[in-house]
Amino acid sequence: MPARYAKALRGGFAERRNSREPTTIWALRDLDLDIGEGEVLGVIGRNGAGKSTLLKILSRITEPTTGRAELYGRVGSLLEVGTGFHPELTGRDNIYLSGAILGMRRNEIERKFDEIVAFAEIDKFVDTTVKHYSSGMYVRLAFAVAAHLEPEILLVDEVLAVGDAEFQKKCLGKMGDVARQGRTVVFISHNMASIEGLCTSCLMLAGGRSTGKGKPQDVIGQYLKTELRSDAGHRSLRIHPGRRAGSIPIMDWVELQSGPERQIGAVRMDSELTVHVGFTYQSRPLHPVLGVTVRTLQGAAVFNVNNKFIAGFDFDRCMSGTISCTLDNLPLMPGTYSLDLWFGDRASDLDVIFEAISFDVIPADVFGTAQLPWAHLGPVFCRARFGLEPGSPN
Q: Is 170 helix (H, G, I), strand (E, B) or coil?
């Protein structure tokens, strides 16, 4: 029996916008990719990069314009909501239909049937036609079928985002189980924590081409640097609409850095963030003091740091230079944040700029579980230790 793996894709897929327009838009181009048995490949990239087209070709929904895709083994796929289900059939009938498409015998499907229904939480509606299902019910059943009928290659798109947080947690756990069984998984997601926690390798697509493949953490770092807000991370402060009335324009510019990468507009959770501020004060030398306030997109203050309150950070007097503030482990949940900057000396704030610069925080597998705390419970995450003493409480 041949090894279970997907060899995708030598060639590409193109679309013409209309027959009168000669321009050809390539959704995928010159992609040469081997996915080995037992490999869990995460695919990342901006919207329109070609991720979903890749999975449609691998699942044989779309035929490549040039080249070929070779797959060895049964393929289970979860793409758009509704793919592979017949709306006029019941949930029960669709389970058997999907299994038959995968080449499974009826007794194999029956052995997994109760487990599928329990995972999907549709036991009361299993004999209802799926056209009456909500999108959440549809996705739960589709994922349960795709993951439990033992395909040798599992293809999963971002469609999991439709489910609620508890269901996403179940799905990620099941995908981890599938991967540990040595089956091949191709997983598209914008959730970098899931990619980092579940995948053994990562592929980045841009403009339909592969721009990097390797360890998830390395490729995600490359994605943050080259694709996501690559034009951000530096801003002139000489003229800024957020400068507080009465401020002396001392701060010249601000620049963000994460690790060795400077001028970066996106940073991973729990990683280092450094804020550099260039300043010039021509009136007199001063002891530079910098305050940095982090705010949510809605304007709520999250925390503030200021070297005025830190022992040992009383800098020598000067009239110009660059002052830096480094946060070793950024404790922010994913989202967009802005920085207020307060510059002065030990006696007073001389230059204050609100929303001086903004940046994005990208999910990362900070707890090693491929899961994150619920975002609606606050913008900050915290590590904690838990203990248990079994027995009756005193």
A: helix
Co-location of 196 and 318 in the same domain? no
Closest by Cα among 372, 371, 370, 6 to 198: 370
How far is the C-alpha of 168 from the C-alpha of 375, rounded, in Å? 14
Cα separation, 318 vs 280, in Å, equals: 9
* Residues spanned by the domain of 18: 5-226
Task: For residue 393, tell me if it sits in a domain.
Answer: no
What residues in the chain have per-residue pLDDT under 70?
Answer: 1-23, 80-84, 159-165, 227-231, 393-394
Q: Which residue type is seen at 150?
A: E
CB 331 within 8 A of CB 381: yes
pLDDT digits (tens, 9 = 90+) for 261-307: 888 888 999 999 999 999 999 999 999 999 999 998 878 899 999 99
Dihedral of the alpha carbons of 341, 333, 163, 39, in degrees to the nearest 10? 120
186, HSE (Cβ side, Cα atoms, 13 Å): 33
